[in-house]
Amino acid sequence: MPLIDEIAAYVTEKPVGAAIICVAALIILVAGYLIVRAAARVATRLFHRYVAPRPVEDILTIVAASIATGVSAQGMWRFSSDVLGFDGPLRLLLFAFIEVAVITSAVRARRNMRENFSAGIDGIAVWALTCLTAVLSSMDARSPAEAVFRLAAPLVAAWLWERGMAIERHRITGRGRIHWRVTPERLLVRVGLAEVSDRTASEVDAHRRLTRVALAAKKARALREAGASERKMRAALAKLDREMDRAVEHTGLAADPARQEALLAQIGALYNTSALIDLRPPVPWAPEPETSTASPAPSPALPAAGVFDDDDEEVEAVAAEDAAQLLDPAQRAALIRAAREYWDKQIERRFVPRAADLAHETGMPLSTARECRAQWKLEPRAHALIEAARAHGIVDTGTFPAIEVPEPAMAVNGSGPGTASG
Question: Which of 216, 409, 411 lies closest to 422, judged by CA?
Answer without folding.
Answer: 411
